[in-house]
Design brief:
This protein is of the alpha/beta class. It has one domain: Glycerol-3-phosphate (1)-acyltransferase. Helix content is 39%, strand content 12%. The chain contains eleven helices and ten strands. A six-stranded mixed sheet has the order 1-9-8-2-6-3, with helices on both faces. Strands 4-5 form a two-stranded parallel sheet. Helix 1 crosses helix 2 and helix 7 packs parallel to helix 8.
Length: 304
């Protein structure tokens, strides 16, 4: 009975297969479940799907629902089928767990390469866990690795997957919303999918930066209406267009989340904070909290 239930659940998810672990040409990581040379592609796919189902419905999902009581609004904005890019603010690692938990469709999130390359038993278990959850490794070292990551995202979207992206590129160090990176705009233009803005609330309280144990806290997810950028079709590679699209998405996230927007990259903010802690002269930008209505907008876009 249990095996039959798992197979029924597996039939309802859109799998991310072994071929999706091709994010960077120099990514040597390979989850344990993918290493068998005797297993066929279908067996590998079924193994990944089974792990995903068990994590979501048996092991991890029920515990998250019990201790955090997550609520979601706007789920009707998620398409029943076809590719779409979910662009979310990023408060904590927990974001990548709660959003897929609350959606019936499977969501694939890129995860940093370090989660897949640690050595030892713990590292192997972590590879297996993140791969089973449908996450794919991203080499953030730049250059060819960054392009490979974009290519993988575009391919997944064209194949009809839901792809989750954090435009800020990393977790917010202080709860504010930081400048978005334009890579997601390139993926949108190349794959011709809509963007669905997502605002996470409470995950930074449940999973503070640096914490090893999560703390029970109410989690809320708000899913906005899809953003259509088809008016920019054929303009992939135009830096101004890609920045305009990214700013429009960040404006939607600011409007939905109520976060203060800071016009620098989150990674730069972390560098400045680290410099301050080390006693070096460094000043983080400060600005008055603005409402969405008061915020400056980008000319000639819906965010403008």
């Amino acid at each position: 009975m249990f095996t039959r239930w798992v197979r029924l659940r597996v039939g309802r998810v859109s799998p991310v297969t072994c071929s999706d672990i091709r994010v960077a040409k120099h990514c040597a990581c390979q989850p344990p479940c993918l290493r068998s040379t005797n297993a066929s592609g279908g067996e590998e796919r079924e193994a990944l799907e089974a792990v995903y189902v068990l994590m979501k419905w048996v092991f991890i999902g029920p515990l998250l629902r019990l201790f955090f009581r997550p609520k979601v609004e706007g789920v009707e904005n998620i398409p029943a089928e076809g590719g779409a890019l979910l662009a979310s603010n990023h408060l904590a690692v927990a974001d990548s767990f709660f959003l897929p938990l609350m959606l019936s469709r499977r969501v694939t999130f890129p995860a940093k390469l370090e989660y897949f390359t640690q050595s030892g038993v713990k590292g192997r278990l972590k590879k297996w866990f993140f791969t089973g959850m449908g996450q794919i490794p991203i080499d953030r070292s730049g250059g060819a690795a960054a392009q490979a990551a974009l290519d993988t995202g575009i391919r997944l979207l064209r194949e009809g997957h839901l792809l989750g992206i954090y435009p800020e590129g990393t977790r917010s160090p202080d709860g504010r919303l930081y400048k978005g990176k334009t890579g997601l705009a390139r993926m949108v233009l190349e794959s011709r999918v809509k963007v669905i803005p997502v605002a996470m609330f409470g995950t930074d309280k449940a999973n503070p930066i640096g914490s090893k144990m999560w703390r029970p806290h109410k989690i809320r997810i708000k899913i906005g209406k899809p953003l259509d950028f088809s008016r920019y079709e054929g303009l992939a590679g135009d830096r101004f267009v890609e920045r305009s699209i990214t700013d429009e998405i960040m404006y939607a996230l600011m409007e939905m989340s109520g976060q203060e927007y800071v016009d620098i990259y989150a990674a730069k903010a972390k560098e400045l904070m680290a410099a301050q802690e080390a006693g070096e002269p460094a000043e983080l930008p400060t600005q008055e909290r603005r409402t969405a209505r008061e915020a400056d907008r980008i000319p000639e876009t819906e965010a403008g």
